[in-house]
Design a protein that fits this description.
With 452 residues, the chain is α+β, with helices and mostly antiparallel strands. It has one domain: Outer membrane efflux proteins (OEP) (Up-down Bundle), CATH 1.20.1600.10. It is 63% helix and 11% strand. The longest helix is centred in the C-terminal third of the chain and has 69 residues. It is elongated.
């Protein structure tokens, strides 16, 4: 056999085999973590927060600005003061009589500026950026928990829909066999014709129930595919059809939940903003150095040069110094902003207390649901055995003329419902355990328990 030629076919067959393997709950959760867009959003938000730290650190670097300008303008000048503004261009030089002649003007310059100390403002800004990153990371953990829990719940829902469809299919088969038996008895004039109509109605009702269960399977598969990004196929039930064993895991306090951690990060973010405000009302010192050159076609004696005069800088200067600016009247606004952040911190702290209380309540509710689901799972086998015996007895009694068709129809419905309840009892216990692990904030023990 020529191995290179058959290798593509072997790889294709291997890929098809792997694709046909049943999907496990752990695989569904892992795929949701890898493929669901909300997870990518959280990851990119963390990356943006990391870049924000680099941006805040850039404030420690010096600043250098280069300028070059060429213009053609009039050169009238006037004595007097002009308040700082950004509309009227500035002009320099001696004052001459009115003139509308125009000349070339050029200017180039380089300004170097650096803030040697800032009384902790830049450090507070960097710390605020770090808290933003921590908050984004905490929110990513929350998203991961929510997506994982949603994928696991969708898996259980799909598996439950399949179990209901199987029970409905069995109910259709029983109704079909019974309808044929009744039709034979009616044909032999051993039963009235109304029994045949009732048996046909029961068969139609069973088929309607099957159609509805098949629809539920398709809808649940669509939900699972939305989260896990997988096509419909088969599911590996593993231990999920029987109640979970009691796992020896330490109870996690509500404060360890990712949602509580995210809320703690929100409080830290408010505190970081407060530090920025506390270091804002200080003078700003800037070490500056500048070199520049200017050229103009206008001469001090009032004359102008040739057509090209002023196209290049002809006068150079330089300067070195320290500039101090102080926002003297910013104190009232800063005080108001600090009060706002104080109230924001109290609000976030109250949300944290409420969240911890809600998480504790969710854990208690989930434990109660899990205990009830386990006890129900102990009773469904008894219910199923009794329903099977009742259905068998009712069928025999009907054939012997000792029972009515209503008794058989009711027994078959009870059996179908008992089969559904028994098949879902284990899944309901797993769903309650999932709610407990989600309320605790850690799905790892749950995924380990679901492994085949």
């Amino acid at each position: 056999m020529n191995l290179p030629r058959c290798l593509p076919a072997v790889l294709f067959a291997l890929g098809a085999t792997l694709a046909a393997q049943p999907l496990t709950l752990e695989q569904a959760v892992t795929q949701a973590w890898e493929r669901y867009p909300a997870m990518r959003v959280s990851v990119e938000q963390v990356s943006a927060a990391v870049a924000g730290i680099d941006l805040a650190r850039a404030a420690y670097l010096p600043r250098a600005d280069f300028l070059a300008q060429l213009n053609r303008s009039t050169w009238n000048n006037v004595s007097g003061l002009l308040l700082p503004q950004s509309v009227i261009p500035s002009i320099s030089g001696p004052v001459f009589g009115p003139s509308m002649s125009n000349v070339w003007g050029t200017a180039t310059g380089l300004l170097f500026s650096w803030e040697p100390f800032d009384f902790g403002l830049r450090a507070a800004t960097v710390e605020a950026a770090r808290t933003a990153r921590g908050r984004a990371e905490a929110q990513t953990a929350v998203t991961r928990l929510e997506v994982g829990a949603a994928a696991a719940d969708a898996f259980l829902t799909t598996l439950a829909a399949g179990q209901v469809a199987r029970a409905a299919q069995a109910g259709v088969e029983r109704a079909r066999v019974f309808e044929q038996s009744v039709a034979a008895l009616v044909k032999a004039e051993l039963r009235p014709g109304a029994d045949a109509s009732r048996a046909a109605a029961e068969l139609a009702q069973a088929r309607i129930q099957l159609i509805q269960s098949e629809k539920a399977v398709q809808v649940s598969w669509a939900s699972l595919a939305q989260l896990a990004g997988t096509a419909s196929g088969s599911l590996a039930a593993g231990p999920l059809l029987r109640p979970p064993a009691a796992a020896e895991t330490a109870e996690r306090p509500p404060a360890a939940h990712p949602r509580a951690a995210a809320q703690t990060a929100a409080i830290e973010a408010v505190k970081a903003r407060q530090k920025i405000l506390n270091t804002s009302y200080f003078p700003k010192f800037s070490l500056q150095a500048a070199t520049f050159g200017r050229g103009t076609g206008a001469h001090p004696d009032g004359s102008t040069g040739g057509a090209a005069s002023g196209l290049g800088p002809s006068v150079g200067n330089w300067a070195v110094g320290m500039t101090m600016t102080f926002p003297m009247l910013d104190l009232p606004s800063l005080r108001a902003r600090r009060q706002i952040e104080t109230f924001n911190e109290r609000a976030e702290a109250a949300r944290y207390d409420q969240m911890v209380r809600d998480l504790a309540a969710e854990q208690e509710k989930a434990r109660a649901s899990l205990d009830a689901a386990r006890r129900v799972a102990q009773q469904t086998p008894v219910q199923l055995a009794a329903a099977r015996a009742l259905e068998k007895q009712a069928t025999v009694r009907y054939q012997a003329g000792l029972a009515t068709i209503v008794d058989v129809a009711e027994a078959q419905r009870l059996l179908t419902q008992a089969e559904i309840d028994d098949s879902l009892a284990g899944l309901n216990a797993w769903r309650a355990l999932l709610a407990l692990r989600a309320a605790e904030g850690d799905l790892t023990p749950y995924l380990q328990q679901t492994r085949p």
